Amino acid sequence: MPSVSIVNVTSYTGLELLRLLSQHPQFVVTSVTGRSAVGKRLDEVFPQLSSLLAFNQAATPAVNPKLVIGEEPAQTDLAFVCLPHAAAAEMVAHLLKRGTRVVDLSADFRLYDVAVYEEWYKHVHPAPALIEDAVYGLCERYRERIRKSSLVANPGCHSSTAILGLLPAFAAGIINPDVIIDSKTGISGAGRSPSLKTHYAEVNEDMSAYSLEGHRHLAEIVQELIAGAKDGGHPLSAPPRITFIPHLAPMTRGILATCYADLKPDAQQRMPTTAEIRALYEEYYANEPFVHVVDQPPHTKWTYGSNHCFIYPVVDVRTQRLIVISCLDNLVKGASGQAVQNANLLYGYPETMGLSIVGVNP
Amino acid sequence: MPSVSIVNVTSYTGLELLRLLSQHPQFVVTSVTGRSAVGKRLDEVFPQLSSLLAFNQAATPAVNPKLVIGEEPAQTDLAFVCLPHAAAAEMVAHLLKRGTRVVDLSADFRLYDVAVYEEWYKHVHPAPALIEDAVYGLCERYRERIRKSSLVANPGCHSSTAILGLLPAFAAGIINPDVIIDSKTGISGAGRSPSLKTHYAEVNEDMSAYSLEGHRHLAEIVQELIAGAKDGGHPLSAPPRITFIPHLAPMTRGILATCYADLKPDAQQRMPTTAEIRALYEEYYANEPFVHVVDQPPHTKWTYGSNHCFIYPVVDVRTQRLIVISCLDNLVKGASGQAVQNANLLYGYPETMGLSIVGVNP
Amino acid sequence: MPSVSIVNVTSYTGLELLRLLSQHPQFVVTSVTGRSAVGKRLDEVFPQLSSLLAFNQAATPAVNPKLVIGEEPAQTDLAFVCLPHAAAAEMVAHLLKRGTRVVDLSADFRLYDVAVYEEWYKHVHPAPALIEDAVYGLCERYRERIRKSSLVANPGCHSSTAILGLLPAFAAGIINPDVIIDSKTGISGAGRSPSLKTHYAEVNEDMSAYSLEGHRHLAEIVQELIAGAKDGGHPLSAPPRITFIPHLAPMTRGILATCYADLKPDAQQRMPTTAEIRALYEEYYANEPFVHVVDQPPHTKWTYGSNHCFIYPVVDVRTQRLIVISCLDNLVKGASGQAVQNANLLYGYPETMGLSIVGVNP
Amino acid sequence: MPSVSIVNVTSYTGLELLRLLSQHPQFVVTSVTGRSAVGKRLDEVFPQLSSLLAFNQAATPAVNPKLVIGEEPAQTDLAFVCLPHAAAAEMVAHLLKRGTRVVDLSADFRLYDVAVYEEWYKHVHPAPALIEDAVYGLCERYRERIRKSSLVANPGCHSSTAILGLLPAFAAGIINPDVIIDSKTGISGAGRSPSLKTHYAEVNEDMSAYSLEGHRHLAEIVQELIAGAKDGGHPLSAPPRITFIPHLAPMTRGILATCYADLKPDAQQRMPTTAEIRALYEEYYANEPFVHVVDQPPHTKWTYGSNHCFIYPVVDVRTQRLIVISCLDNLVKGASGQAVQNANLLYGYPETMGLSIVGVNP
């Protein structure tokens, strides 16, 4: 059974990994780190984990709530890195060097072009040589490459939602690459560090847009839609023109992206219909256990706590625009669930292992 | 002091009118109706109104919580009609005939073209002859006409938000009339009748889109943006191509519309900058007491319980798109506050009378 | 593998059973009923269940989202009855007659004294003869009897919370049986039928008390605390004097009961300390997988979606009162999770089977 | 028109004072301080206040959003002090010395006994000599003394709720002074400084109790109930035995206190009925504009943004306990609204001036 580290376990993605891995029949968490809580046990930081104790009669429990948080990760087979960007790359380099496979939840290895990375993240990349070994960890796209990799760059939460929603349309070349993505996220996406922007009385009963000047996830979205179009046999002749505006919604979990694009007529100047597009989407995701094409507008609450993504494509008949609504749980399919799915691939386990939970509803 | 009826006071717009009028120094509510509660006193249906009693020492209190809900409106100088469409038109015809001025909060008199109305609302208009006497009650646009009118068609909540956000751009002719409006509303917009769609456990911690097949407010938006472009000296050569998608957000009040459109280059092929557009917006709304152009993304919570609208125009420099974010309280500037503003105009009072409240925050 | 019916699956407890059983390795749901949705597939009523399909490659999936909702339960080994009281008893009688084991989630078989039942529920009990065969389904108390039973009366949500919080104190005889239980519940406890009391805009951002004239769960609480005191060797000399006031809190899930009682001095007139009482509680629940005595005030959010209950006993040193805070998820340990725990006992499975999930947090 | 300072205006009580005073016809805010924002204009810190500008055509607007935040309060007639305890007392001493009347929203002058203060607040009182000049600012109790005072100690939010709920019962001597107060507060009560305890994702969808070891508001409650009993002609023979447990509820505003006490039989050994107690409560608050005795359990949402308090007394007939439910908006009647009410008294204005708003509902 592979041993696992979670680096910066005191983040929300760290906590979510603990929750998911506690149901996993193969991985065993043996090392956790977190600067602000070094020396504390997991159940001191997250008291609800004490409930795991009763289920840990096995010789090697997946997650032991009595595990003490350390400063540096112990030697393990696999590590999940939940550090902020830059710090993550340094840790990843260190871990790879000692033979640990890594799922990195930061943005450090998501962009193949280091110049693009440095433009968006405003600092010199700490380990550019590793970028070419990294795979963008969207399993629905790259599962074969992930299986052979040692470093998976787990996608961003907004990016996962938008890319999964738009990939079939780009791959089939049915839209102009002129897209608007209006994304709404729950507040856990902002992380576990308190600030006025995440202060309950400020954000409860409130909607607002943010990062109007440009949100970093846009770079991933652009990169992956270009690649998706190419791999689908409809390469773009110019960079796509994408506006991506994230919004903060008064809920803990969930992202809903509403994507808008102009449909392209076919050779006979006919526009595709909703039914044709839905069929195309269903075929694209036919064998995907976690991506579901639905016939009504999906709700983020369908995904609560689960690794599922629901997608609804529909034509706006008045304007011949394609509208795609895509939603998932930002902490699961948008982060830690996707990370476990990647880890399953790294170890040749069934991709769904430990992820069979359905959304908590209502 | 003009006497006032509220028809269908048991709706949320009716309740909000009571709250706002209780602070109004001129109007006196003397008649309230509401089928489901005939014979009950206001404070039996809305117990919080009992708090008004202490403030009703005047000979003619604006709102008396002991008022009994009737079946038919008594003769009054002014009436606010909060009925659903179709029922509203019949009541409006009846009230106008007996000399009552009317602010109609339904959609029945918002559309000047009866054919468009009947296409969207799927029934024969009950009083088409009255349409030409009605004024679309967006005070920022039509205050002179409203002053001379007897019938004001109070705008829809999504419509108000989007139209106020886009008017300056259409009037100045700086964008292509090819617009996407992604609107997010609180749940009070769905009214006071219980249903699974407004059931707490279903919509709490949830985001979803609705009316993907076309929402009725689109018709108003199109009508008013065409008119705004024309009156601004930049008439459209063809109908605008607008996609409007509303979303339900887990909050009680507030609408935030994010509007996207391509900028048009000027004669010198230069694109307008954010600063230029903001100046243009500020000028357009320079003397408006309730519309505020701001220099950061606004929050619906700034508007909670108030009649104010905040607008933030900004250029997406990567794509040369204009993004406009507009927000207001759907029950106030999006309904009952706008209705009081209209009533002030009908009676020649200062437009802000009774509406000076600032948003409740946090 | 035992076949299972869920009667009235369109309720929230029915939906929660589907979610939990979908993770269960033994039970197979083969029949579901629900009057309002007869003829529909499960995934038409609950679209999020479509995500289960990918996991149903087994010959006999635990929950098949394509299952069609019927009017009457088919013959199965086990049935969960989620009907309202009275209707439940009739169904239970019918099911038992044909040899089905039953976990009844209604109140019909919780009270051993039919007169008490009829006083609280205001109707004649439809099947009084079955009462003596029923076991009150609080596993922590009655697991041996449940194992041998065919009819388990699953406890109420408020009752479970309060009884688990107070049992150790009653069993040890350390308090006067003069207790105040102030309980706060999330709104899913009110069920899935829309009403003004559960309408989002009414209950969001609101706290209120209800059932001040007496809530039916009080009868269970009294019955079980008397029994707990007796079985603990400290029988009460008179009925306990208990005030139980439930409150509605603006959240979907969770119950938190704050219980207050006067401590009794021991033979030496010494009052027990917090440390002593905590030790006593820890011993009482030492081997319980789902009940956790903690050393800080627990949060309902620790229990979200899980079958766990957290209990914090503490002495108010100024008044020598015992305060016990107890919390759980009203739909899991307070309803459907407890029901699965009972079903595990009925079939001799490990009590925790299918219930190993930890709370979704944040 | 009296000039006003708000000291530490960047707190939630400071912001709420701005909102309320903007509607006040007499006071003019001329000085605001706030360490973290010195040099900024009010509308830079609170952008929603920019909406006030349109209403500030008067020569002396009540609140000017362009006012610059200073480090020290300028000389004004009146000051509201929103500092934390200890810092408040020093500021109050300074302000009184220069002839400014003060409403202090901190706890520094609420307790008449400096020893009690120092026991609860764990530091030496910075200005004990001023205590005897201070009046506890619960207008319903002390309006005559407040009128003649220069220093008003504005009550705590939990204290106001509980004291208003229990005063009539203590004054009439109908209960044993053996009381349990279970109080539920919205999260704005924790102030505007971010922390994990007020982080949205932590407290949304969560209930918990806090300050189990003793909350400071208990000292005020005890002091005022003793005084209320004495002034009502039913002095207590011993200190009351009060347990007060506050809880955090997932809402922004509102406090609901549920109070429990044993009724005392009268001379004929007869227990008072609900009707008698309600009559007694109604008489006690007969002339109060802000306190309303109601005949059903009140909702915090009735009070949202208003200065009203709703109280529901009822006998639990099974146990002969009195239950009193009391609720208000913690930032208005529980803080800044009460402060304005006090300021009105200091200046001989009608007590309700500027406070006539009814709760925002839904």
Can you characterise this structure?
4 copies of one chain form a homotetramer. Chain A is of the alpha/beta class. The first copy, chain A, has 2 domains: 3-155 and 334-346, NAD(P)-binding Rossmann-like Domain (Rossmann fold, 3-Layer(aba) Sandwich), CATH 3.40.50.720; 158-330, 2-Layer Sandwich (Dihydrodipicolinate Reductase, domain 2), CATH 3.30.360.10. Chain A has 10 helices and 13 strands. In chain A, the strands form 2 sheets. In chain A, strands 8-9-7-10-13-12-11 form a 7-stranded mixed β-sheet. Chain A has a 6-stranded parallel β-sheet with strand order 2-1-3-4-6-5, with helices on both faces. In chain A, strand 5 (135-136), helix 5 (139-147) and strand 6 (151-153) form a beta-alpha-beta unit. In chain A, helix 1 crosses helix 10 (332-346). The longest helix of chain A has 16 residues, at 157-172. The two termini of chain A are 35 Å apart. The relative contact order of chain A is 0.14. The mean pLDDT of chain A is 96.
Percentage of residues in helical conformation of chain A: 25-40%
Determine the mean pLDDT of chain A. 96
Strand order of the largest sheet of chain A: 8-9-7-10-13-12-11
The largest pleated sheet of chain A is described as: 7 strands, mixed
Query: CATH superfamily assignment of the largest domain in chain A?
Result: Dihydrodipicolinate Reductase, domain 2
Quick one: which chains have the greatest interface? A-B, 46 and 46 residues
Query: Any idea of the CATH topology of the largest domain in chain A?
Result: Dihydrodipicolinate Reductase, domain 2
Strand content of chain A: 15-25%
Number of E-state strands of chain A: 13
At CATH's second level, what is the architecture of the largest domain in chain A? 2-Layer Sandwich
Helical stretch count of chain A? Answer: 10
Structural class of chain A: alpha/beta
Shape of chain A: globular
Low-pLDDT ranges of chain A: none
Order of helices and strands of chain A: EHEHEHEHEHEHEHEHEEHEEEH
Oligomer state of the chains in this structure: homotetramer
Number of domains of chain A: 2
